[in-house]
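Note to self: the last two entries modelled the partners one at a time, which told us nothing about the interface. This time every component goes in together.
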Amino acid sequence: MTRLRVLASRIRALFSLRRIDREFEQELESHEQLLTEENLRRGMSPGEARRVARLRLGNPSSLRESNHDRRGLPFVESSLRDVAYAVRMLRKSPGFALIAILTLAIGIGANTAIFGIVDSGLLRPLPVRNPGRVVVIAYQRHGGKLLSYFSYPNFRDIRNESSSAFSGMAAYESSFDGLGKGSRSQRVLTNYVTGNFFTLLGIRPSVGRLIQPSEGRATVASPVVVLSYTRWQTQFGGDRAIIGRKVLIDDQPVTVIGVTPKGFHGVMPFVETDAYLPLSMALVGKWDSRSSLAKRTSAGPFLILGRLRSGVSLAQSQAVLGVIARRLSSDHPRSDSGLSLSAYPQTLARPAPMLHNPIPAVAALFLALAAMVLLLACINIVNLLLVRAAARSHEMAVRSALGGTRARLIRQLLTESLLLAVLGGAGGILLGIWTCAEIGSVNFSPGLPLLLDFHFDWRVFLYAFAVAMVAGVLVGIVPALRASRVEPAAVLHEGGRGLTPGRQRLRSALVVAQVAGSLMLLVIAGLFTRSLQRVQQVHLGFDPSHVLNLSMDPHEIGYTDAQSREFYQELLRRARNLPGVRSAGIAFTTPFRLYTASQDSVDIDGYTPPPGKPEPYVYFNSVSPGFFRTMRIPLDRGRTFTDADGPKSAPVAIINEAMARRFWPHEDPIGRKFHLAGGPAQWEIVGVVGNSRMMKLTGPPQPYFFLPVAQLFTSYETLQLRTAGPAAAMIPQARGLIHSMAPDLPLFDVGTMNEMLSGSAFLVFRFGAVLAAALGLLGLLLALIGVYGVTSYAANRRTHEIGIRLALGAQPAQILRMIFSQGALIVALGLAIGLLGALAAARLVGSMLIISAADPLVYAAVSTVLALVALAACYVPARRAMRVDPTVGLRHE
Amino acid sequence: MTETKSEILQGTLDLMVLKTLDAMGPLHGYGVARRIEQVSENLLRLNQGTIYASLVRLQQKGWISASWGTSENNRKAKFYAITKAGRKQLAAETENWERFSGVIGRMLALADRR
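The predicted structure of the combined assembly is written out below.
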């Protein structure tokens, strides 16, 4: 406490040190006067009296100094002086300062941008009360795939039986709905939530109120909706009067009761949830083909969030969940045999709970690549500083001769490099913000409300600051240590030409490291780019060119299922007659579409899973006649769907080859039957089609099957057209056709199949390739500057020598060879080390690539490019050296 | 006598300054130094400048306060006065000191008896 008060008083004093010094002067003077008078009274002579008074008081200048230091904070004071001096030094060489600050800004900016992306995706907790206690519940059956969609009865049981570990559990179902006020509605991402959803999160509305616990399951007389802040702003202009008014959701009037807080984007990772409705609303009007809330099935539509009780650890909660899982598994063997439950902290469940989440590794990789870029940038600045250190050896010698200790000199030089780093860091943050905003504005996945909220929070700023400080010390320490090791006598005598060969060796070694580092970056970038290329050449099993997709959901404008069925049939008929359309089909989902993939466990006649293994999960799609022709998926055996496969006729299915081979390896699957978990329908196989890649680009083909859309109907469907000309050119006619039939129907995910694939299937690879390539190019540029700088500096310093050589009859070509070979040696060494490093680094990222981590083409191409560019950077100064005029060279001092 | 002159502990000087200000009321630096010398019957001959180190320390801790006034010879001088917190500290330190010097005294007496 006292210590704090002393510190406070010293800090206060910093602002009035001059006054304090003056006052102390006065105080001493008056003290001396009093002593002198005392001595006079004792009978001394005036001179004697003054002399004795001075003796009694002590040395005034040392008293003044120690008073000054004791009053203020000497370290801070001298640091401030160092900073002022550093600013003066930088202003004296603005060119150097600008280059150094820009280079650092680029390096720090790259790091800040990547960290900003990682932060917003993985690190930033939900903006709710005590987010660390919020978990996502997931399950496995017989140790199989980790899933997180529950049926309502399972949610209810888990919630009721886990209250010893969880203070609450909420469930929600996500859906797309039409939201509008007048005629035109927009398609929005909605969550149907249990009544305790918002109280569990502990957030406050920005306007109005949120859904109350009593509203969750109550059958609604007057339905309500909570809008997200973003949706409120964009669609309703932030109008407060909207509260209490009715809007249309799927053409049904619903009262807006409130708006979520600003900055709350919902609980689903990476997407923006637009509106929240009570769970009971999910039953009204829509999804009438869906199973009801009461039915216990192996997989349902509900995601579960839990809040751990305070003092309960994750491990303790797992134990509680384990008991529940065993109980459910023995009580409901049909739906839940072999069930195990687990809780994942929300930040680790992005995008979903996963056993082996690859995303943190990818994030770490890109952070490491960015760090590499910064390292290369730092090396350039170290080189610049070493040149400056040579030029400043005279100054250092003078300071040292005047009594500056080595530690004091190092501190001064480090202050200069830290000042550079702070300025570079400020620039880097600006660059990072700009880069993130650019990335955020790219429309990566049309149709899905992707959340790219890369706003910078304290974590990013802290990271940028830490990176800048490390960079400052990194670039400053070696030059400072070298520069401070001065022998004043030697330097002062030599007249300021303190040249040591060791300095050149160090600089060359640094550039070798730079070439090596940039080669590593380029190899990784090359591997990602080649993976992207390879992925785009993967045999998909369907033909994406000339296919146009348009998605719609007539329930959003209030159609019943019967009306929707009729609508789609008529739409198909008319679409096939559009000029320029070769064929048309309807499908529930399209390849690689996020959030609308269907999968279920299948129960197959004559197939028993290996003991202890769950029933197999298979992805499927429901499609109309014409689908296979439109997608150009070849039929191997049997038949495709026809209009005769209607809702009343016998259920039929078409499977792919991989499914046939997996479950009926030695027999003809045609005529065999299977059913979906919990479903009564026996689907009879009537055809086998070729394998196609619907969910995964790599690995062996996955089993997949198709059901007639008429027999497994949802109102959400995609119209697919195969066009004669470019698919995009058909968009106006297709839109026109649909709106001539249903003027207000919102259309979404409108685009060609190729566009959609690059927005979904290839998204990760594209993102990775672009990011890695950007970092690789930065690295190349920095290495280039390094090579050029060190070669031309070396050539410059040898001007005198070159002059002598030329005067003694050396040929210019020999000079060229001499300087060039020196640079070439650096490049060659860098390439050799870089290749080894790249091989090691690529091994680490091998699992994220499609091609081999040792792909010879990438290594060869990248080293050639780097070698050529780097040698060109050596050639320019070497050529200049060749042209040295001997007379000038000899006089050069 | 030479020993006692130079070997004053920092804390001891602070305690003496505090006690002086408590007993005498506000004083300037010269007055404090003079008083300490008088009380010690000139056994303690201070390098009077060192008194200011002690005064700064006490001031920073908030145990004394300073204000400008006029000295007996009509000069501007800085006067120091003990604060409430300073009195509390003085009481505590006095007790400490007495306990400590009692222990030392007993120790020395013990050594004598052997």
